[in-house]
Write a structure and sequence with these properties.
mainly alpha; 4 strands; about 5% strand
């Protein structure tokens, strides 16, 4: 990783190692169990690798296209480019591509497999609602994701869960479409049903555990990006103000638009959550607003600034 001036976060590194170990152990359990069950893994693993590679390689294009974003030049968006230029100079990092998404949802995101292929995007909604210092805090948060290669890390972290899910689902389908015929010849359809049930249950448990682990890592990465961004600008209160303003403005966005945007919460500065129950609110990619503000208040105290 190229050196930059974003502060190191040993807590983040520890959680990454622990999560990777747990996911690796989980994956080993899946592979061992299915090998013992004589399930052929080659094709399933190839499909999983291709899907994850596509997500890794084309994440910037996919995210921009999905959010109706486009790359803008300094002439088209001088204020946005000026903020990114200043922050990249402070962080001593390459400048990513700069984009604007023409949506009223107040948010920003960064994507790309490496700092040289990164894109930082702000929505027209957030550009209208934040002042320069608040926008600087948000973009410092997003540039921290770029500097720490968060897209690549989360893609790798999610691979084990995705592969495990594919393998176990393949085992289920092979039993459904192949196992019954074999067992019916032996008048043992009941045993086939039992195997299918066990494989399905196993798949659900494995996916649930990997899902929880990657979401926990995602939440800590957001806290780490808040911390790094606040320390880079030296104004944690501006980032706290942006967080409060963006979260409050979410309630003004139509629920239909929020539900559409929820699929991209892992990329966003602040999650787009519609009213009522949703999977995103139950297993959020982001810490709660209270937790994020409490951390920023603590950083302000450390810097000797008023809270």
């Amino acid at each position: 990783m190229a050196r930059n001036r974003f502060p190191q976060d040993r807590g983040l590194a520890t959680r990454m190692v622990v999560t990777a170990f747990l996911l690796g152990a989980l994956y080993a359990v899946v592979i061992t169990a299915l090998l013992l069950a004589h399930v052929q893994l080659g094709l399933v693993l190839v499909i999983a690798v291709v899907l994850l590679f596509s997500q890794y390689w084309f994440s910037d294009r996919i995210a921009l296209f999905s959010m109706n974003g486009r790359i803008v030049t300094p002439e088209e968006a001088p204020q946005l480019h000026a903020v990114v230029d200043r922050l990249c100079a402070l962080a001593d990092m390459p400048k990513p591509a700069v984009a604007i998404a023409d949506v009223d949802l107040p948010n920003a995101f960064a994507t790309g497999r490496s700092p040289k292929r990164a894109v930082v995007c702000a929505t027209t909604g957030i550009l209208r609602r934040l002042d320069t210092e608040e926008l600087e805090g948000v973009l410092a948060h997003e540039l921290s994701h770029v500097a720490h290669r968060d897209v690549a890390v989360m893609t790798v972290a999610s691979f084990l869960g995705v592969a495990a899910g594919f393998v176990t689902r393949f085992a289920l389908y092979s039993e459904m479409f192949g196992g019954f015929n074999r067992r019916s010849n032996n008048n043992d359809q009941g045993g086939g049903v039992a195997v299918v049930f066990v494989v399905l249950l196993f798949s659900m448990v494995i996916y649930a555990i990997s899902f929880v682990l990657t979401r926990a890592l995602s939440r800590y990465r957001e806290l780490s990006a808040d911390r790094s961004g606040a320390l880079l600008t030296g104004r944690p209160s501006a980032l706290a103000s942006a967080l409060t303003k963006v979260t409050g403005e979410m309630s003004r966005i139509p629920s239909r638009d929020l539900r559409h945007a929820e699929a991209f919460n892992a990329f966003f500065f602040a999650p787009a959550l519609s009213q009522g129950f949703s999977i995103s609110s139950l297993f959020s990619t982001h810490p709660s607003l209270e937790v994020r503000l409490r951390q920023l208040a603590h950083i302000s105290q450390q810097l000797g600034q008023p809270v």
